[in-house]
Structures are given as structure tokens and as C-alpha cells.
Amino acid sequence: DKLFGVPGCLIEVNPGKVILPPKYQDLGERIYNLNVRPDDVWLVSYPRTGSTWVQEMVWCICNDFKSEASKTISQMRTPLLELTAILANEEGSWKDNFPNSVDQVENMPSPRFIKTHLPWGLLPAQLEQVKPKIIYVARNPKDMCISYYHYCKLIHKLNGSVEEFCELLLDGTAPIGPLWDHILGFWEKRNEPNIQFLKYEDVKKDVRGTIEKMADFLGKSLSEDDIISLMDHVSFKKMRNNPALNLEPLLKLKNGPSFEMNGDSNFIRKGQVGDWKNYMSEDLSQRFDKWMETNLAGTGLHFQTNL
Ligand code: A3P
């Protein structure tokens, strides 16, 4: 609350506690009881892991990405399920431009492409039985944290230093809550046939390979031309300049038409592995290393913090 100037609320979830905007309490039950469809495609991630990037690949693999539809902002094509709860913490009528995100998901024609940052324990119970395709994206926590810091400054008026924000993440009190419960909740399920677990660093190393792997997982075949065009469409430069993906329309609604995105004030900001080195002291970096080592011990999961 102190750093964000707006209240958050603690929601009990098994395991642990999750930190969400208070409005979540109105939506949570509807989300938990949502009807899941077998042909849904879900993309789940902790914030700032490259989820918009992978979500765009997924949507484009399953739809005609050269069509007019692809120019629609991503919230309309691949809604963030809990967006309404997040916007409720914001001031101003600009947010009335967005429909209730749960209504939107309920009313979408199939196949639906749904994105969420909620942990497994808060997601619809039917995911267990219906088993639609689920893609989970994770990123090394050092870069994720720095990216999340900039995002919170850009979107949520975070009033704190990088170090203060890092403490929130290390302490499990950053918005959305503890990182390891989130990641490991999906890592444990990674071998289920309807689940794909991706890491940002692997996507970055091999975009083509990721597109091919996702197409295979989603049961789609792509021509060589499609692959080349899609690689171009999801390149950092193209995505950064694409108003359907870079949140520019939302930020202009929120901050006024003269709002300019530049430098770190970009939703699609740097797109690198290792940017944490520009922000973390040696001491802080070592604390992150130790934190990762402790929480990943015995899990078989590893993250690269440099490429
Ligand atoms: P940085 O802030 O480190 O640049 P999410 O979509 O989950 O919020 O993740 C956002 C992060 O993914 C940002 O990281 C953003 O720049 C990065 N990203 C988005 N599109 C990308 C792309 N095409 N290539 C590489 N990174 C991308």
C-alpha cells in the first residue's frame, strides 16, 4: 500500500497468500467458477515474463495475423481475465472503455484465447477436468523484477526505488504475490499433455523454434512463409511500435493524447536478458542468486540470467 498509494488485499490460496486489488473479491468467485471450454487456449504467467510476446505468437499461429482482426488491441483478442479488478484501483473514466473482463471472456466465441497472471489456485476449477491447452511463461526473476518495477512505475504510479520494489518481490509482497508458488505450481504440471512450460530466455534464444513448438502443441501447421512473417511480426522492434500490443492506446486514454512513450516508459521496454545488471548492486544480485538457489533446489528448474 505504501509504495503504490492504493490498497491491495490478501487472498488466501493454497499454498500461501496472493496480493490483489480489493475489487478482485467481486470477481474471484466468478473466475473460479468460470466455464472452461476444451478448445480454449490459456496463457498463464507471473507479470513481466514475456507473456504478451508469447500470447501474440499463439494468437497468430491460430488466426490470420495478416487480417484486420490482428490490428485490434490485444485485450479484445486475448483478454486478461482479471483486468477489471486491476482497473478498479485506477482513477478516471478512461477505464470505462474496457468491458468487464470476466463478461468478455464468458461471451467470447470459441476458440477463446485467455491470458491471466493469477496463480493456479485461483484459476477456474474446471481447468483440471476440461484440460484445455495451457501455456505457462516464466522468466529469470532478476530481469522479471526490473521489468516489473518499470511497469509498475508506468502503469500503477509506483512511488518507490528499484531496491524497495526488489524487497517486495523477495518478500513475496509484490502485486500478485509470492513468485515461487506461482512458478512451481505450473512447473509441477509441466509434463501434462495439455501444458507447455516456456522460459523467456529460451524464447529469446530461438524464436523460430518456439513458434514451431507452439504450432505443434496447438495442432497447427505453418508454411515457411508464415513462419518468416510471424517472426518479423513478433520481433521486438515491430511489437514495440505496434499499437495493438504496446498499450499506447490505453496509456493515451489514461494520461491524455499527448502522452509519449519513451525509454523505460514503454510497455515493451528493452527485451533483453541481463538488464538487471544495470540496476542491481552486487549485494542485491547475490541475494537474488541465493533466493533462486534456495527455492529452486531439487526442482530441476533453472533460469539463465545472462545469455
Ligand atoms: P523488459 O521490460 O525487460 O523489456 P509481459 O508481456 O509479460 O508484461 O512481459 C513484458 C516483457 O517482455 C518486457 O520486458 C518486454 O519488453 C518483453 N517483450 C515484449 N515483447 C518482446 C519481444 N518481441 N521480444 C523480446 N522481449 C519482448
From TrEMBL:
- Iron is among the record's keywords: no
The cross-references to InterPro entries, in alphabetical order and at most eight, read: P-loop_NTPase, Sulfotransferase_dom
Q: Does the keyword Transferase apply?
A: yes
* Superkingdom per UniProt: Eukaryota
**Pfam hit, one:** Sulfotransfer_1
Molecular functions (GO terms)? transferase activity
User: Which protein, by its recorded name, is this?
Assistant: Sulfotransferase domain-containing protein
